[in-house]
Amino acid sequence: MSFPITRLRRLRTSSSLRRMVRETSLSPSDFVYPLFVVHGRDVREEISAMPGVYHLSIDQVVTEARAVAALGVPSVLLFGLPAVKDAVGSENFSDSGIIQQAIRAIKNAVPEMVVITDVCMCEYTDHGHCGIVRDGKVINDETLDYLGRVVVSHARAGADVVAPSGMMDGMVSAIRTALDTTGYQDTGILSYAVKYASGFYGPFREAAESAPRFGDRHSYQMDPANIREALREAQLDVEEGADMLMVKPALAYLDVVRRVREMFDLPLAAYNVSGEYSMVKAAAANGWIDERRIVLESLTGIKRAGADIILTYHAKDAARWLRDEQRSGG
Ligand code: PBG
Questions:
Q1: Could you give the C-alpha distances from 265 to 1, 171, 195, in angstroms and in order?
Q2: CA separation for the pair 327, 124 (Å, rounded)
Q3: Which residues pair with 311 in a beta bridge?
Q4: pLDDT band at 208, cuts 50/70/90?
Q5: Is any ligand 1 atom within 6 A of the Cβ of residue 33?
Q6: Which of 165, 167, 198, 206 to mutate to test the pocket of ligand 1 (most atoms within 8 A of CB)?
Q7: Is the pTM of this model over 0.90?
């Protein structure tokens, strides 16, 4: 049946009809909000390349976690900036480290908050790479031992989920074993399974002070041109015991999100990364785009591609906008 019998515009005639036939819905419970934790008290310093995102001391992180929960966002992702960086990133697995303190403070103040920790070495090491470096190379298997120590200290502090982001081979099984042999069978793993070597992480490196001092991350993060390799990465992480998978970045990789969604039944997350955020904020600040429309449209696109969970710096704004829309019957 085609025109003039079929007229697709019929179902677009009113806002209520459009709501009834909407195929993809976005909700605050889809979001994870990333937080950058620093030492000190009463610190709330805006990251210049990421307007609206801050370096927060523990007291401020707790305030933020309460605000996030009040907006219906169920989860935060924690990044820590240590007091001292060294070759092995010692603060990363110290029980008095910045992240361990932040986990305890958040779980104490907002027990229902799902606390996810980013598990990587680059913020903690003096060379800025995501693993142990020897002769200018990132040594895979030795790094795994350290990642095991990091996740156990996060779990002991109360983390619900750990999210390894360093793209080391075997990281998921090493972490699963470390958790299971220390009594943390219930701590989940969200694997940054498919993480590309991306220019879109630019602003994050200022936020996390994690730029590599030499070289780049191409020997461990994925080539942006590859998708079959992405499916192999995801497959291995499923076999190693990941509870959830992630594709990162999101917007330039929606085809990858779709393929991973079709191949695997695990909950799938996509990371709407710093560069994606900063570009929107910069264009909005110039009055070139409508920030609210662009953000909700982009997040809807990420869900439509197949993500169940979106890690995004827009989470608080988007949750507020969605609430307003619901109230006005949008
Ligand atoms: C740590 C890590 C990075 C991001 C998340 N975890 C940086 C990197 O791999 O270089 C990027 C997040 C963002 O850009 O928002 N390895």
A1: 36, 21, 19
A2: 44
A3: 32, 271
A4: confident
A5: no
A6: 165
A7: yes
